[in-house]
Design goal:
The structure is a single chain. 19% of the residues lie in helices and 43% in strands. It is an alpha+beta fold and 256 residues long. An 8-stranded mixed sheet has the order 2-3-4-1-5-8-7-6, with helices on one face. The protein has an 8-stranded mixed sheet with strand order 10-11-12-9-13-16-15-14. The relative contact order is 0.16.
């Protein structure tokens, strides 16, 4: 898996959902994104479901690990040396919420918190290399919404080698994190309209062919609209909350 580790090093590698009702979540995402979801029968994986598009791995859905864990999507960055990544997190002012551990024979993961309080995970592949598909209904983008976002930029540079390209825009500047000139994720200051107790967070977006149609499909399946479909300079997007409370985005950008 050395080639897989190199391919995803410092880039988005995986997303998965921790939810209090995995069966209901599987049904919801199957309806909205057309995922075929297969639950691993091995007890060591705790009923983890692998979502596939055309037989290719796209995302995961599993149960929460404790009663106080919120239902939420997690965002993973690839690494070829998880131990070294963990030490860089500590040195850069982040917190290690879960030290590196094996996920069966699939790989190793760890969970961190950046200096603004947002959770971010890292993945070192073994049997599972990460995303196998892109395009419609697959992972499209991830975006850090942070309080005092400027505190986060040095952290991601030091831990993952991400350059920050910030563009003036309204109502606030937007930062693209880049690896060798390729934009891999975004960041912006959290809206002042959000409740003060809401922590910084990473938002996961899925690419769709038609944002309005997918938004309506999500509502029909029991989701709540957070941001109605709207245009932005790079395309069109919407944000919804699934029936169990996990927020995610729907995104359409022009083909390049």
């Amino acid at each position: 898996m050395a080639d897989a580790a190199t391919a995803i090093r410092n880039k988005p590698a995986w997303v998965d959902l921790a939810t209090k009702d995995p069966a209901a979540a599987r049904e919801f995402y199957a309806k909205v994104l057309g995922w075929q979801i297969e639950v691993n029968p091995d007890p060591q994986y705790g009923g983890y479901g692998l979502a596939r598009i055309g037989g290719q791995d796209a995302a995961g859905i599993g149960g929460t690990q404790s009663p106080d864990q919120p239902t939420a999507w997690s965002f993973y960055i690839g690494t070829d040396d998880l131990a070294a990544t963990t030490e860089r997190v500590k040195a850069a002012g982040g917190s290690v919420m879960a030290e590196p551990f094996d996920v069966g024979d699939q790989g190793r993961m760890a969970v961190f918190q950046d200096p603004t309080g947002a959770f971010i995970s890292a993945w070192e592949p073994a049997q599972m290399g990460g995303f196998q598909t892109q395009g419609a209904n697959a992972f499209g983008w991830a975006e850090l919404n942070a309080r005092s976002v400027e505190k986060a930029l040095p952290f991601y540079r030091e831990v993952f080698g991400w350059d920050a390209k910030t563009t003036p825009s309204e109502p606030q500047p937007y930062t693209e994190f880049q690896v060798a000139g390729e934009s891999v994720a975004g960041a912006l200051e959290m809206s002042a309209d959000l409740p003060a107790e809401m922590p910084s967070y990473w938002m996961v977006y899925f690419s769709v062919d038609d944002v309005d149609r997918s938004h309506q499909a999500a509502l029909d399946a029991g989701a709540r609209s957070i941001v109605a479909p709207r245009d932005f300079p790079g395309g069109r997007f919407a944000i919804v909350s699934d029936p169990q409370g996990a927020m995610f985005g729907l995104l359409k950008v022009p083909s390049r």
